[in-house]
Each structure stands twice: as structure tokens, then as C-alpha cells.
């Protein structure tokens, strides 16, 4: 079961060009910028109420984000729902026959564990399940 929307991921060509809109114009506090090497992406996370906006910039032309932008242009990439026990949630979804991108949790940005559900199982929306590790 999901607890809340953790964040909305937005694919951008350049963090440097995109950050000022969210930080300066929309007045969202910038929490962190970090690179997730194994996903070939740099991310900037902004707080907005109880949720966040995650900007995603590819660090390699073969990155999933680079391929997404090439095909679709910049824009919403995924919605992430927070769960308290990611492994249990994945097990439940497998039992329900939900198509998964990730069969097991993996490391995500900002010290989280994540797994993606296949867009064909979620009405065309790439859906991330996110467990915050403290």
C-alpha cells in the first residue's frame, strides 16, 4: 500500500538551466543535487509541501533519461509513491500479476530503495515505488 506521492520525476536536458525555474521562480527549496552513477543520471530534488519534484539529467547518451528525452522531449518521466516496506510491496504485486521493471529493490537517489512498475501495467505511467531508508 502506498503512503503518499513521494515525488514526480521530470526529465530535463540541463539541471543548470532548469533549477532556476523551480528554485527562484516557483520558490521551491532545493534539497540536494547528486549523481546516481549506476543509473547514469544527475538529480536535483526540490521540496513542495509534503512531496518533492525530482529533476533528472542524463550523464550519458545511453542513459534511460537521454533515451526518454530523445523520444519524448523534456517532461514528466515518472511518479513515485512512498511505501514503508518495498520488498513486501513487490512480493504482493508479483502475486497480483503486476508487470514489474525491477524484480528486486535497488539503490535510488537520496538514500532510498526503489523499484519501477512497467508502464504497460499502470496505464502508460512509469511508476516508482520508493522506500526511504533512515
TrEMBL record:
In its UniProt record, which GO terms are filed under biological process?
L-methylmalonyl-CoA metabolic process
Q: What class of enzyme is it?
A: isomerase
Would I find Hydrolase among this entry's keywords? no
What molecular function does GO assign, one term?
Answer: metal ion binding
Q: VOC domain: from which residue to which, for each copy?
A: 4-132
* Coiled-coil stretches noted in the UniProt entry, renumbered to this chain: 76-103
Q: Domain of life here?
A: Bacteria
User: Does Membrane count among this protein's keywords?
Assistant: no
Q: Which UniProt keywords apply?
A: Coiled coil, Isomerase, Metal-binding
- The EC code for this enzyme is 5.1.99.1
Per the record, the similarity remark reads:
Belongs to the methylmalonyl-CoA epimerase family.
Q: What protein am I looking at? A: Methylmalonyl-CoA/ethylmalonyl-CoA epimerase
